Every structure is written in structure tokens, then in C-alpha cells.
Amino acid sequence: MSSKVIQAMYNDDDILMDAVKEVRAANHHIEEVYTPFPVHGLDKAMGLKGTRIAITAFLYGCVGFSFSIWMMNYMMIEQWPQDIGGKPSFTFFQNMPAFVPIMFEMSVFFAAHLMVITFYMRSRLWPFKEAENPDPRTTDDMFVMEVAVDENEQELVSFLENTGTVEIKVTEK
Amino acid sequence: MYTFSSKLKTFSYALMIVGILGVAYGFFTTPSSVEDVKVMLQESHDTHGEVATAHDSDAHLDDSNSHDSAHSDDTHAEHVYHLLKNKPWSALYVALFFFFIISLGTLAFYAIQHASQAGWPVVLFRVMEAITAYLPIGGILLFVFFVLSSLHLNHLFVWMDPEVVAHDELIQNKTGYLNVPFFLIRAAIYMAGWIWYRQHSRKLTLAQDNATDLSNYTKLFKRSAAFLVFFLVTESMMSWDWIMSLDPHWFSTLFGWYLFASMIVSAITTIALVSIYLKGKGYLEFVNNSHLHDLAKFMFGFSIFWTYLWFSQFMLIWYANIPEEVTYFVTRFNDYKIPFLGMLVLNFVFPLLVLMNSDYKRVNWFIVTTGIVILIGHYVDIFVMIMPATVGDQWYFGISEISSALLVLGIFIYVVFNALSKAPLLAKGSPFIKESEHFHY
Q1: For a surface tag, which of A62, A108, B176, B197 has the fewest beta carbons within 10 Å of its beta carbon?
Q2: How far is A97 from chain B (nearest CA, A)?
Q3: At a CB cut-off of 8 Å and minimum separation 6, what does A76 contact?
């Protein structure tokens, strides 16, 4: 189903923030905002739900932590015990202090990498993907707000013109 | 303006009185002679039977190898007698030192905020200044303690005893640094520098409140940067002098940092607790939960930093396994297992799990609960830094320990809240005051 959207361009993040608040206050639906850089507080102004990526980071960290325990136990205790510096290497527990840096690094490694992969998948980003932004200038110095047209197109355009926009375009999507 | 409520004042007096009675009791109940200790040991042997005997022969293996057993009993009793004599002194030292470093850590944190020209903490400056008001009093108390130690009223610092030094070649080599006059001179220099900066910065921020230009502010910025240089050197040396020299054979090169981590996390926790208390009483209306969120982030971060240093110190010594180094941890694992490993739970695992979630850092009772746990944990940390060297295996949390902490806590509360009532709670002259008041995250 195709729907009509209005793309309003802004050249300043402060003006954009005020515009987002105004548009939401007037009960219009903002489809998406494209910005060249992350704008602090924009997610709250748009009324987006808080990100859950922190929870996944914690869980991935736990996976990395467990994996490192299993890995060090397999490598250093079961498969090929090595006597390093006269330390008894026959139980995991007695060697545990030496494994702590590895547990730490593995937790960070898993949390960081899997979190980035999750983020890409969640935002539907993959290699050779075509860009979704409606105007190439949003990667440079322009901010675009997409507002859905529901009933009166003309009224909405004139409303948006008063929010400090520099350019307005109406397109099918 | 804050008024020191009579309820809190009475509470601090009560803490001081209970504390002083307990401390006095601790001093009067130490055994008065070696004979008393022998009787005491005999009794404990009788009641505990084999466990106690096995334990004693373990701890004094060297003695029993070289001497006949009767002689060994005598030297053992004398040893225990000295350790028990040290116990009330050590308990007092732990408490004095702990509250002193809370105040000193707050001063360092405060200087960092000025030197980095941070905007957000301006509304908390008066709270920090009040906590550092304890610095002069705590410093004098500690200095008096060191003078009493140097007069041989206690034997916490074994290198102060010429009898010990005469038979100890390792300490003899260190007498150029570890001698009583130089020790006291160093202590006086550290304290003079810290207290001078504290009084000076307080004067400047108060003057800035009613100033029309920024001259006080720029002066404070420069003095704070200079103070931080002085502080980082003296703090490290202070940790060698006041803590590490209790074990004069042992040394660790990151000890200064390790103590600093303990100091700064306790200090930030105390700032957060005092702020939440004042907010609960209806003051500090300009402090919002974003400020508390930032303090809680620091509590979380520095707790991990402390663990990192604790582990770095431990792992290198454990791995290298050099006899003169590992004795430090062997004593702690053998005689102090519960406080030594328990503090890792209090100082690391608990804050890590409770304060990890961003939303929890804004909830007052989460901050207060974690804060109290962190303070107890770092008190135990200081306890385990000092006690093994001074009372060895004769430690327990008794009346001396608890009442010393209560006594100094009473003085601390009185001085801090008295200082809070002396000046407006908002440092309104700072150029960043608007930024701080509207701080949100």
C-alpha cells in the first residue's frame, strides 16, 4: 500500500528538535527522521521506546564469560595441561587467577561484537544494501523529517512551513 | 541555608560518647602482662582442644623447629601479648584513617572538578566542601596518633622500634627513609599541603559567590591543577608511609593507586549519601536525579577500577610466587579469609550487579543501599590492609573495632553537617551554575 509522506528539511539540529516537538504536539505522525549525526534527546522527543540493546550486551557478556571458562578449562586443564611457573595445573580452581584476564577479555569481546552485529541486524543494515535516506544531503548537513499525510495535505504543508523548515517535498512512498 | 538539626547533633554526640566508652573499654581490657596471656592461651587450649594446638604450631613452625617446646610457648605468649596490646590501637587507626581518606578523596574529586572546569557538579560543591571540612580535624587526630606511635606507646610501626631494627638487616637498609623524624616531617608536609588547599579553595568559592568578576574562579582553577600534582605524589608516598610501612619487608609498586581507588570510591559514595540525605530533608532542591545518576556512575566505575587494581596486585604476586612478596597474601588467605574475600563481594560483585542498569542509578534507595555496602566494604579493605601487620591472627570484630568506627563517625557527622550550616548550599558565583542547574541526561 502506497502512502503519501511529506519530507521537511532542516539545516539545524536545534530547529529540528523544536519542530519534532511541535509536530508531535499537533498530533501528526512522524514516520522517520534522518540526521547526519546522532542528535541527543531526539529519541525521547520522538517518543521512541528505550533501546533494549543494553540487555543483549549483558547477556552476550555472560555468554563470553561462560565460553572463556569452558575454553580455558579445555585448553589448559583437560586437553594439554602445562606447568607454567611451577603452578599446579591439574584443577581449574587452582589456576583460576591466571584465567581471569582471559575471562574478562572474552566477556568484553563477545559483548562488543555480538552487540554490533545485533545492532546491524535490527537496523536492517548489511553489505551492498541500498541507502534508505530520501535525500543524499542527510549524510552531509541536512535533517529530514518524514510526516505521514492522513487527511488534509495542504494544511499540513502550511503547518510544517511554520516550523523553520528550509524545503518541503511531498512524495509517494 | 542549612540548619544543623538538633536531632542529628544529638545523634552524633551519642555516637561519640558510645564510641569513646567502647574505645576506653578496649584499652583497659588488653592483657596487662605476658602471664595473663599464658593463662588465657591455656584456657583456650583447654576449651578448643586440638584445633587450637594445631593452629598454633602451624603459625609458629619456625619457632618450634629451632627452640625447645617450653621456650616456644614463652615466645609465643609474648608474641600474642604484643599483638593483643596493639589491637585497640589498630582498631582506632583503621577508623581514623578510613574517615580521613573519605575526606581526602572528596578533596581530590573536588579539585578534579575545578581543574577540568566541569559543569555538572557545581550544585554539589558545598556538599563536597563540607565533607572536606573534616580534613583538618582528622589530620590532627592522625598526626597525634603518629606522634604517640613514635613515642612507643604502641608498636604498630615495627621499624620505629630500635630493638627490632638492630636485628633486621632489611629495615637497616631502609632507615634513610624509614626513620621517625623524617616520617613525622613527611606527614606534616602532606597534611599541611592538603589542608592549605582545602581552606584556600573554600575561601575562594565563598568569595566568588558575591564577586562581580571571575578572578577568584580563575585563581581556583590554577590552584586546583597545582594541587592535583602535589596530591598525586603525596598520596602515593602517604600510602607507603602510613600503610605499607606496617609491613616494612613487603612492597608493591601500585599500592598508591590501589589506596587511591579505595579512597575515591568511598568519597564519591559519601557525597552521594550526604546529598540524598539533604534532599530527603528538603534541601538541595536544585540537585536532580541526573546529578545522582552521574555520582552513581562514578560509584560503579570506580568500584570496578578498585577491583582491577586489587586483582593486578594480587595476580602478579601470586604468579611470580617470590617468598618475600607472597607472605602478604599468605597471611591474608590463612588468617583473614572471610574479610579478605568477603570484601570482593561487597566492593565488586554487589555494586557491579546492582548499579549496572542505567535506571537503577537514578533510584535513591538503590544508591543508598549500594553506598552503605560499598562503605562497609572499603572499611573492611582498610581493616585488611592494616590488621594483619599489627595484630596478626589475633583479630576479631569486637568492641574496640566497632566503637572506634562509631567514635570517628560521630566526629565526622558533627564536623560535616556543622560545616554545611555555615554557608549557602548553592555555590551561586560559579560561571557554570546555570549549566549545572539545568543538567539533564
Answers
A1: B176
A2: 6
A3: A82, A89, A95, A99
Cα B285 to chain centroid, rounded: 31
pLDDT at A70 over 90: yes
- Nearest CA to B300 out of B363, B357, B342, B219 is that of B357
Closest in B314, B319, B358 to A85, CB measured: B319
Is position B265 within any domain? Answer: yes
In-domain check, residue B58: no
Q: By C-alpha distance, which of A32, A102, A36, A44 is closest to A72?
A: A102
- Residue segments in chain B with a per-residue pLDDT below the cut of 50: 49-67
For the record, the C-alpha cell of A25 comes out as 504536539
Assess if residue B72 is contained within a domain.
yes
Range of the domain at B329: 6-30+67-437
ipTM value > 0.85: no
The reply to whether the predicted model has a pTM over 0.90 is: no
A44 in B contact zone (CB under 8 Å)? no
Q: Cell match 492522513: residue?
A: A150
Beta strands in B107-148 (DSSP E): none
Query: What is the dotted CATH code of the domain comprising A4-36+141-172?
Result: 3.30.70.260
